[in-house]
Amino acid sequence: MVAQMAKPEYKIKIRDIAKVEEIQEEGYQIPVLQTREELTEFLIQNTAYPYCSKKGTIFFRRIKRQDEGVDLFEKMINEDAIESLGLRTEEDCVALREKIKEEANKRKGHKAIKYWSEDERPREMLMKHGAENLSPAKLLAIILRTGDSADGVSAEELAKKLLNRFGSFKALDTASIPELFSIRGIGMAKAVQIKAALEIGKRFLREETEQKRRIRTAEDVFKFYAPYLKNLKEEVFKVMILDGMNKFMKDITISKGSLTASIVHPREVIKEAIKESAAAVIFVHNHPSGESKPSEEDIAITNRLVQACDLVGIRALGHVIIGGDGYMSFVDEGLMKGG
To answer: What domains can be seen in the chain, in order of their start residue?
Structure first.
């Protein structure tokens, strides 16, 4: 028996004191699992949860298993150990499971998700409870797929690190690829996975409009463009191309940067509108400051564009400025001349 204890991981056994003292006299220092606390700690380390069958049999389910040698778990957690743990009913098992999960949660930051309880793994939780019931960190962990193996950080811990750094999905969306790279554990693959997932969300929001839905109000325009424009750090001027029934055909970016008459020239707008056989257009741009009130330059540019559209028979239906979570409509405010 002494020869079998060569490896440290196999030294922990549940024995009576007399037998342990006898072996220790031979030079072996063997930890004794006798108290409820010692046995609970052993279960936490092995990620083992107690259950009670309908017939009253106590058994354990484990996530983590020993990879080498003989599995001694059953020898360590025997009937005497179950008695010491005070496990007699399902209620006893539930109480101990919760305690083990709570402590395991505190320690699992440096443990791969595959070793977590199935009740705690993001993908399994999504399948069981639905995506709407997952925390932001767990949803992001599913996108990341893996953590940082160099630091032993799980995907969920890496997701929390990202959210702590940027604060929200909105901020993640506006972050550049180099900014994402600045987070230890985020490489090119994870950065593009994040960007792709956020882009899917934005396209989902404007999907109804793109499916030939008629544009009726400034609010329709706002809902279409807000996911793309409201958080940008620079001004972007776009033209929405519509057909004769005011249905969406195409979206064209005219300029990026400070909005000036020299950049947003009527010639460029008309050229693109004619090229796409537009029957009508709506002008859209954002204010990075979050203030949607138009400047004098905004009003002057809008009037020049409306006049140019009138000359070629294209209806200019409006101009919407998006500022943060709000917007301003030139038509609603009586600022559109002609058209």
So the answer is: 2-108 (no CATH), 115-204 (1.10.150), 213-329 (3.40.140.10)
